[in-house]
Amino acid sequence: QVQLVESGGGLVQAGGSLRLSCAASGRTFSSYAMGWFRQAPGKEREFVAAISRAGGTTNDADSVKGRFTISRDNAKNTLYLQMNSLKPEDTAVYYCAARDGNYPSRDLNEYAYWGQGTQVTVSS
């Protein structure tokens, strides 16, 4: 079991940057692959990026490739999402999630533990 708390969301102008953090409880953080997902108004939750337990493997959604970077610091029990060149279509609630396993799956159904979400709003 792991508890997750996201932070770092806010309102930014198009073209700007934000850095999201996800703080995990306990000392089992390194046992989980981690992912970022987002849910825009009126849309279903979608995959953004994921990372393996030790951070050696990552997967990114095509929509964010080249703009977003997922990373983790297991010593700090923290997951990050660096978001650059933000677009209005990036506006969503962003969630971090943990998966029992190593593979950084794109499938949200593989993730058992979820944070409360943090709002990201990109204005034009």
Helix content: under 10%
Structural class: mainly beta
H and E string:
EEEEEEEEEEE
Percent of residues in β-strands? over 45%
Number of separate strands: 11
What count of helical segments does DSSP give? 0
Shape: globular
Radius of gyration in whole Å, from Cα?
13 Å
Give average pLDDT, whole number.
96
Largest sheet: 7 strands, mixed
Low-confidence stretches: none
N-to-C span: 40 Å
What does this structure look like?
- It is a single chain.
- This protein has about 120 residues and is mostly beta strands.
- About 0% of the residues lie in helices and about 50% in strands.
- The chain has strands spanning about 5, 10-15, 20-25, 30-40, 45-50, 60, 70-75, 80-85, 90-100, 115, 120-124.
- It is globular and about 40 Å long.
- The model has no long low-confidence stretch (mean pLDDT about 95).
Can I get a quick summary?
With 124 residues, the chain is mainly β. Helix content is 0%, strand content 49%. The mean pLDDT is 96.
Could you list some keywords that capture this structure?
4-stranded antiparallel β-sheet, single chain, 124 residues, globular, 49% strand, mainly beta, 7-stranded mixed β-sheet
Architecture blueprint of SSEs:
Elements: E1 4-7, E2 10-13, E3 18-24, E4 32-39, E5 46-51, E6 58-60, E7 68-73, E8 78-83, E9 92-100, E10 113-114, E11 118-123
Parallel strand pairs: 2-11
Antiparallel strand pairs: 1-3, 3-8, 4-5, 4-9, 5-6, 7-8, 9-10, 9-11
